[in-house]
Amino acid sequence: MPHNPAHVVPGELQEIRPESPREHYLESILNGSGMIAIIALDTDFVVRYHNPSARKLLGYEASELDGRRLSQVSVLGLDDVERFGAMHQGLDSDGEYHYSLGYQLHGKNRQIECAISALYDHRQELHGFILNARDITRRAKQQERITRKAAEEQCLGVLLRLSLEDRDVESFLQQSLESLLQSIPWLNLLPKGAVFLGESHRQQKTLRLVASYHLTDAVTQTCERISFGWCICGRAAARKELLYIPDTDDARHDVRYPGMEPHGHYAVPILSNRDILGVLTLYLPPGHGEKEGDKTFLRRVADVLSMGISKRRAEQTLAFQAQFDDLTALPNRSQMICHIDQALVRSRRHGHVGAVLFIDLDHFKNINDSLGHTVGDEVLRQVSSRLTNTLRKEDMVARWGGDEFVVLLTESGRQPRDVARQAQLVAEKIRDALSIAFVVGGYPLNVSTSIGVALFPDNNETTTEILQQADTAMYRAKAEGRNCVRFFLPVMQMLANERLVVEQDLRWALAQGELQLHYQPQVDASGCLVGAEVLLRCPDRKGGFHRVDLCIDVAETTGLILPVGEWVFREACQKLKAWTDSGVAGGLRHLCINISPKQFLQRDFVSLIQRIIDEAEVAPGCLVLEITENILIDAKTDAVETMDALKGIGIRIAMDDFGTGYSSLAYLTRLPLDILKIDRSFVTGISLDERNAAVVEALMAMARQLRLQVIAEGVENDDDLGFLILKGCEYFQGFYFSPPRPTSEFNAYLEQRSL
Fold it and tell me: What is the distance between the alpha carbons of residues 78 and 61, in angstroms, rounded to a whole number?
């Protein structure tokens, strides 16, 4: 029977007797306390009473508790001499003693909280003790989770602060690793770890060891660089997921060396948008269990490390892009300008002379257009490598943009003549280096280069002016045949300024409708009008005209030739329609219109011509398109297809300036030509020049065999005309008959002829 601690005599606890409703009520309370275990003890700490909760909490049967001394109930932990003594001291001084302990019940860890109090009667005499115990396992675990969560957040906060600090990526990772391993005791790890960064090494994905903590030399040497898929770290990188191994006996642990201590691993990939940045690896004691809570925390650590790495790489990328070219890794335009600024200041201060070389690859656009930008980019990378290897360490090369490069030669001497000689030697070395074929995709590609050179300082010019001078010299090199070196002279700047004015006036004339067409008659041997050549005139804003050859050249180089060429063809067709409708066309059988290579190479060129003809409502047979040999060189086999398409419309085609370029008789045999025009350079003074006479006679004989009409340009006098007629030429053009006439004058010329 249970004992009632309310009715006691010294030395023992009496049985509780339900003698009254109140006593029955008290017994019900004691036995019904489901959450609190109650054990009544006598003055010798012998168990005299225990409620059902006590038996359940401690895992004892009633017979195992009754009459036992408290020190014999091992679950309560008072069999420990030190704790039992502490209990006596607490009861003697305060009348109570509190403690908590953990134990295992049915294979599960439990945590209880106990309180022992002395029991006195109304005379304050000790009659025994009461022990209350409560299961705090759930509360302890909750508190442990709260404490760990706070510790994790504090640790992550420290790592986040480190990620924002101004330090390089390797210092950041080393400091982060040390901070991590010094602040996570709850993970029960070995105080060892490493961080690897993902890199491309010899065209393979690898991990490079960049941070370590308490690792032996054997480990750092063995794991200095790890291939993806090798060992636990490489596997985590390849699979992009956190991996765990319990110990070094795991088959995935590929590292082996004498004296290696047993350990396990957490290998945590550091990711950014599924791209592998690196791997964090931590060492575990053998047998350390895999825990989801640990893995969740370590993934968050990896996220912070990822942010820190990405931030630094982004900063490095921005810093690199601000000063270097992405494609070639050479200094870029802005960095070169800064270096020229500094070199200019030093040169003026110390009396040195320097040089700037402006380099442009000849016909590089053909590589991009025919082989694609991937091949072109590889050529540019190889060019940059050759330039770097050709120059001295103190010199500098930068990619200026596109296929242009700039070289700075600093402090080359004190005499301009000596520096010019040195710059010439460097430029020739560059030409020689770049003349060797570039091999891309197994195919050799040949590239030549035009180089312009400007010396400094000279007077008070700025960096911008020096670069303009070198650029002007480079364009002079191109104008003089390419693949050569030219130095800046003041006259070059004058020509450059003139070209700029022409370009501005050309744009103005095109926009304001100020362009003009002149017409030079073409006649037969009797002087009768058969046609006319349409000639463009570009007015300046002072009332005059710019040189025709310069206007055409500027239009070609700036791309204005396309809208200008379209305007010329449309305007000529409209005028032909007007003259035909008014009846003044008379013997005007055709108009010859010059077509530039860029026009001819347009993909929609034939359809554009067809559309303009339809809009103007003119007969295609009255139009002759004059092309040059450059078109055939640039267009290659496509030229024949375009010419056939034009012939299909009804347009005739004339070869202009034949014999002045890289003429090939093969052109005349395989091209669908109608007219051959003999250039004025052969015609002028032909009656006095035997060589020109022989060339012209051969051309006309060949034209007769190929059934081509021949028009001789530049006829200036009776002797030249007589010689041409004698040799069988049928049609003529030149000042002997008429100069090119503005539209109004040519209209009057037609009217007079039609009378």
Answer: 19
Instruction: Quote the CA–CA distance of 102 and 77 in Å, as a whole number.
Output: 9
- Provide the sign of the torsion angle of the four alpha carbons 218, 224, 225, 230, taken in this order: positive
Q: Where are the alpha helices (DSSP H) in 324-413?
A: 333-350, 364-371, 373-390
Counting residues of the chain whose pLDDT is more than 70, the rounded percentage is 92
Q: At what angle do helices 292-323 and 137-164 cross, to 10 degrees?
A: 10
Q: What's the CA gap between 653 and 593, in Å, rounded? A: 10
Contacts of 127 (CB under 8 A, 6+ apart): 5, 8, 10, 13, 43, 119, 120, 121
128 residue type, one letter: G
Report the interhelical angle of 561-582 vs 743-754 (nearest 10°): 30
Q: What is the DSSP letter of 72?
A: G
- Report the b/e string of 256-271 with b at 16+ CB within 10 A: eeeeeeebbbbbbbbb
My answer on whether omega of the bond before 286 falls inside 30° of 0, hence cis, is no
Gap between the Cα atoms of 728 and 683, Å rounded:
14
Q: How many Cβ atoms sit within 10 Å of the Cβ of residue 406?
A: 25
> C-alpha distances in angstroms, 208 versus 198, 216, 665?
6, 16, 65
The pLDDT value given to residue 5: 40
The torsion angles phi and psi of 691, rounded to 5 degrees, stand at -65, -50
DSSP-derived secondary structure letter, 735: T
Q: What is the pLDDT of the chain when averaged over all its residues?
A: 87
CB-CB neighbours of 134 under 10 Å: 17
CA proximity to 534, closest of 519, 555, 516: 519
- Which pairs from 140-146 meet CB under 8 Å and 24+ separation? 140/111, 141/111
Contact 676, 708 (CB under 8 A): yes
**Where does 537-604 have alpha helices with state H?**
548-558, 561-582, 597-600
In 3-state terms, what secondary structure has residue 678?
A: strand
Amino acid 100: pLDDT: 85
Is it the case that residue 637 has pLDDT exceeding 60?
no
Given a contact cutoff of 8 angstroms between Cβ atoms, the answer to whether 727 and 749 are in contact is no
How does DSSP classify residue 43?
T
